[in-house]
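Exercise 7. Given the encoded structure of a 188-residue chain, write a plausible sequence.
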């Protein structure tokens, strides 16, 4: 199957990146939600306002949710999207014959699998227990999956990133960022 690129290179190494704890960074603005539209107010406090609003408005539970509920919905949306991306990346991995691409996709498959099998489900479970620092750790690890995946393509020898993969990574990272932004306000 042609994904719009084929590289002649081989070998990409896996590594883990770190995401600083959003709960450890001081926030200068007070987060309070008052008024009729908690979705609008919540999403104004995130980096990706439009995606936040679209994601939350697509789930009917959002209309009656508090900030913790909206965070839960966003985590679940991240998990659903991440699972879909994982399946597509694994399919790409299984179908490619290019050794360099296969090596890079292997890193992606490993990292997305951790994100959708361990990290996001763990974050969702811990959110229910109000363990916000632990949620942050699990969610930050899931957030790192797309970056680690893309970084594998820049290691020697370099391999071109499939455009579809870049788009999936961006979307997944943005959903995780929204959840991290919401989570940072739950501890206040």
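Solution.
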């Amino acid at each position: 199957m042609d994904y719009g690129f084929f590289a002649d290179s081989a070998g990409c190494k896996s590594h883990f990146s770190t995401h600083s704890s959003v709960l450890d960074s001081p926030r200068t603005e007070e987060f309070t939600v008052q008024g009729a539209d908690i979705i609008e107010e919540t999403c104004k406090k995130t980096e990706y306002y439009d995606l936040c609003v679209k994601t939350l408005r697509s789930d009917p539970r959002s209309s009656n949710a508090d900030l913790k509920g909206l965070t839960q919905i966003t985590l679940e949306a991240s998990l659903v999207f991440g699972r879909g991306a994982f399946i597509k990346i694994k399919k790409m991995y299984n179908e490619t014959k290019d050794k360099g691409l296969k090596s890079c996709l292997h890193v992606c498959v490993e990292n997305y699998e951790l994100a959708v099998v361990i990290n996001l489900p763990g974050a969702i479970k811990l959110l229910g227990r109000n363990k916000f620092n632990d949620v942050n750790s699990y969610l930050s690890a899931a957030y790192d999956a797309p970056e680690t995946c893309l970084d594998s393509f820049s290691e020697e020898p370099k391999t071109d990133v499939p455009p579809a993969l870049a788009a999936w990574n961006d979307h997944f990272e943005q959903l995780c960022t929204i959840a991290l932004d919401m989570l940072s306000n739950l501890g206040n």
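Remark. Residues 1-36 have pLDDT under 50 and may be disordered. Students should compare their own answers with the one above.
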